[in-house]
Write a structure and sequence with these properties.
This protein has about 300 residues and is of the alpha/beta class. The chain is built from ten helices and 14 strands. The protein has two domains: about 5-225, 3-Layer(aba) Sandwich (Rossmann fold); about 230-295, Alpha-Beta Plaits (2-Layer Sandwich). About 35% of the residues lie in helices and about 30% in strands. The strands form three sheets. The protein has a six-stranded mixed beta sheet, sandwiched between helices. Strands 2-1-4-5 form a four-stranded antiparallel beta sheet. The chain has a four-stranded antiparallel beta sheet with strand order 12-13-11-14, covered by helices on one side. A hairpin with a 5-residue loop joins strand 1 (about 5-15) and strand 2 (about 20-30). The longest helix is centred in the middle third of the chain and has 16 residues, at about 170-185.
Length: about 300
């Protein structure tokens, strides 16, 4: 059984002007998992990451990383963490390889040219190692920031909106990179606006809104538990759904030859069987049936109520 590498208990953050950024956050993060923090702008995602990394002061509560308190043992916890912020802040006239090496030295790590080479190759930056930052595209600059975060061989990697503003191809490359890092044993916490990003790479989903964790759950279990299914039934002729007298949650296609019904669990709910029986009773022929599941995006919108 894997251990919790990050433990957050009753964490709150209130700014001097009285703004409550985080309220009574409880969250455990397992060693080696990818967890996605989903939430609208201003939900508290970046503040939560900053609190764990020791960048912002905690008003109350406790946060520990690998058993070390983030306040009492700041140097130890920070050395275990790599942070990729939203903003691209790099020295424009420095060479890529020098920027990454310098970041490693900041954490007191001895030079390790083999490790730096491995990171740069994995991030497709090796052929650009002698390029100056100013010569790179926005996507490549973002890769350099990730290389910096990985330079001191952290056990935990925070990615704050890692693919914001990058093109689709680079986003897919980033997803593959994140999966490979997890395969190497790195624990990854990412914040994202892209629901498909969480759906593609996360093991667990934690939804945060108004500074509060609304739910944290295994991705597949969350979709199974909250994701309603839609049955689409194609008929051989037009049908007026009024014949069902509102007995089912139905909608109809514009050409009136298809009807759709929402339901939760076919194994526990015999509504679908009842509907099919009624259709046959009305002498309609069913041409084919398709099933759609509610997406993670729809679940997210349900949870945050927007």
């Amino acid at each position: 059984m894997k251990r919790n590498i990050i433990q957050i208990e009753r964490l709150s953050k209130t700014y001097k002007d009285g703004t409550v950024a985080l309220e009574n956050i409880n969250l455990n993060i397992t060693d080696g998992e990818i967890i996605a923090l989903l939430g609208p702008n201003g939900a508290g995602k970046t503040t939560l990451i900053s609190a764990i990394c020791g960048i912002t002061n905690i008003s109350s509560g406790n946060v520990s990383v690998a058993g070390y308190d983030v306040i009492d043992d700041y140097k130890k916890t920070r050395a275990l963490i790599g942070l990729v912020p939203q903003e691209i802040a790099l020295q424009p006239f420095e060479k890529v390889i020098d920027v990454v090496k310098y970041s490693r030295n900041l954490f007191g790590c001895a030079n390790n040219d083999m490790h730096i080479e491995k990171i740069l190759k994995r991030l497709l930056l090796w052929d650009k190692k002698d390029k100056r930052i100013v010569e790179l595209s926005g996507g490549m600059k973002r890769r350099v920031i990730i290389a910096k975060a990985l330079s001191h061989e952290p056990k935990i990697l925070f990615l704050d909106e890692p693919t914001a503003g990058v093109d689709v191809d680079l986003r897919f490359d980033m997803w593959e990179l994140i999966k490979k890092l997890r395969a190497d044993g790195t624990t990854i916490i990412l914040t994202t606006h892209y629901i498909e990003e969480a759906e593609e790479i996360a093991d667990r989903i934690s939804i945060i809104d108004n500074g509060k964790i609304q739910l944290t759950e295994n991705k597949s279990e969350l979709i199974k538990r909250l994701g309603k299914k839609v049955i689409n039934i194609k008929l051989d002729q037009e049908i007026d759904i009024k014949v069902f007298n509102g007995d089912f949650d139905l909608s109809q296609s514009p050409d009136k030859t298809s009807i759709s019904m929402r339901y939760t669990d076919a194994k526990k709910d015999n509504t679908l069987d009842k509907l099919l029986t009624r259709i046959k009773k009305e002498k309609y022929k069913i041409l084919h049936i398709e099933t759609d599941e509610k997406s993670l995006e729809e679940i997210f919108l349900d949870v945050v109520g927007k």
